[in-house]
Design brief:
It is globular and about 45 Å long. The chain has one domain: Alpha-Beta Barrel (TIM Barrel). β4, α5 and β5 form a beta-alpha-beta unit. The protein contains 10 helices and 8 strands. It is α/β, with parallel strands linked by helices. It has an 8-stranded parallel barrel with strand order 1-2-3-4-5-6-7-8, surrounded by 8 helices. The two termini are 14 Å apart. Bound molecules: 1-deoxy-D-xylulose-5-phosphate and the ligand NCC(=O)COP(=O)(O)O.
């Protein structure tokens, strides 16, 4: 039996970053959403941050109207975002850590430490029909608590792996890669579906894509950057091909 094809979620946050640089309407994230399916993406990720530095509230419905792809809404663990997600009812809602002063996500959500705050949010999102995901570190305790919280999906933070890869290539990142691999195996043992994301590029994606337990990769900043030079279609197609190569090489 052939394995299901690993899904590619395209995060289009940083189309909005460029748009917001001038406070105008171009480039429109909804146009990227409309192009994503044909380019090979299996889903869209949009992160409505508390400070609205990129994706705006009005983008949610515009993106939905522009594409049939399932939307994965990334959100902080706040009452405001929970109410927005319950009203918008995306295919998936991924609870991520957020600090106003951060340049980008710096790590996974501490679901163990924030259990009592997150538990009711998970229930409300699930009751609204969202597939709930928790963006966590590749850590056995966090995975165990994610299971207790009833989230069917976890997304493993690959930012540390990406940083180590940038510093020293595959060797430097090998121990973090093993940590991610073991976390994905542990997640499956607990009946959770592991995804992975943050900082993935053409250069570092294949070792993560080669982990058979990982069902979905969410990739954004690098692909939007590449799109400036080659176009979004080519950038997504290349990432898709690298993921397929990794899966094929694993099968040999
Ligand atoms: C949670 C995560 O790793 C990203 O999807 C997140 O969107 C990063 O935040 P920015 O998109 O604001 O860089
Ligand atoms: N959750 C990860 C994501 O959606 C995209 O992260 P990045 O590729 O923009 O770093």
């Amino acid at each position: 039996m052939t394995e299901p094809r690993q899904r590619l979620g395209l995060n289009i946050d940083h189309v909005a970053t460029i748009r917001n640089a001038r406070g105008g309407v171009h480039p429109d994230p909804a146009r990227a959403a409309a192009m994503a399916h044909a380019a090979g993406a299996d889903g869209l990720t949009i992160h409505l941050r508390e400070d609205r530095r990129h994706i705006q509230d009005a983008d949610l419905q515009k993106v939905r109207e522009a594409s049939d792809l399932p939307i994965n809404l990334e959100m902080a663990a706040t009452e405001e975002m929970t109410q927005i997600a319950v009203a918008f009812k995306p295919h998936a809602a991924c609870i991520v850590p957020e600090k106003r002063e951060e340049r980008t996500t710096e790590g996974g959500l501490d679901v163990a430490g924030l259990h009592n705050q997150i538990a009711p949010m998970v229930r409300r999102l699930a009751d609204a029909g969202c597939r709930v995901s928790l963006f966590i570190e590749p850590d056995p305790v966090q995975i165990a608590v994610a299971e207790v919280l009833g989230a069917p999906v976890i997304e493993l933070h690959t930012g540390r792996f990406a940083e180590l890869w940038l510093e020293g290539g595959a060797d430097a990142a090998s121990s973090e890669l093993e940590r991610i691999r073991l976390a994905a195996v542990e997640a499956r043992k607990r009946g959770l579906e592991p995804h992975a994301g943050h900082g993935l590029t053409f250069d570092n994606v294949k070792p993560i894509a080669a982990i058979p337990e990982v069902a979905e990769l969410n990739i954004g900043h690098f692909l939007i950057g590449e799109a400036i030079f080659t176009g979004l279609d080519q950038a997504v197609k290349r990432m898709r091909a690298l993921m397929d190569e990794a899966q094929a090489e694993r099968a040999r």
